[in-house]
Specification:
The chain has 109 residues and is mainly alpha-helical. The protein has 5 helices and 3 strands; from the N terminus they run βααββααα. Strands 1-3-2 form a 3-stranded antiparallel sheet.
Length: 109
């Protein structure tokens, strides 16, 4: 996985300011890895920073609401991962188990 310097992130996200990036790091909205020449960012950090710029600049979300939104998105991502794991486990059990589970889901809904 390639890591980007602070300057590379700022170049990639033209609307991200040094001040906004500093806020994001200070408030732990992104957690860059320490590097020899300063913090380094992975693609997940860059995507998160792009979202923060969109939220704060385009949607005018205030800084107090940003961690709530990020937390909810993190929860959704975690839940998706659990669903993928559960799906793989159910599929590995074979068609009879899958059918039985689908039937129970339909009855519950």
């Amino acid at each position: 996985m390639s890591m980007l310097s602070e300057n590379e992130v700022l170049q990639r996200l033209d609307r991200l300011t040094v001040e906004r990036l500093s806020i994001c790091i200070t408030r732990s909205w992104v957690r860059p890895q320490p590097g020899a020449l300063g913090p380094t960012f992975d693609e997940t950090d860059v995507a998160r920073l792009a979202l923060i710029v969109e939220l704060t600049e385009d949607m005018e979300v205030n800084d107090e609401a940003v961690p709530l939104i990020l937390g909810l998105l993190d929860e959704v991502s975690t839940l998706r991962g659990h669903v993928r794991t559960l799906d793989a486990a159910v599929l590995a059990e074979g068609p009879e188990t899958c059918s039985a589970i689908l039937q129970r889901i339909r009855m519950a809904g």
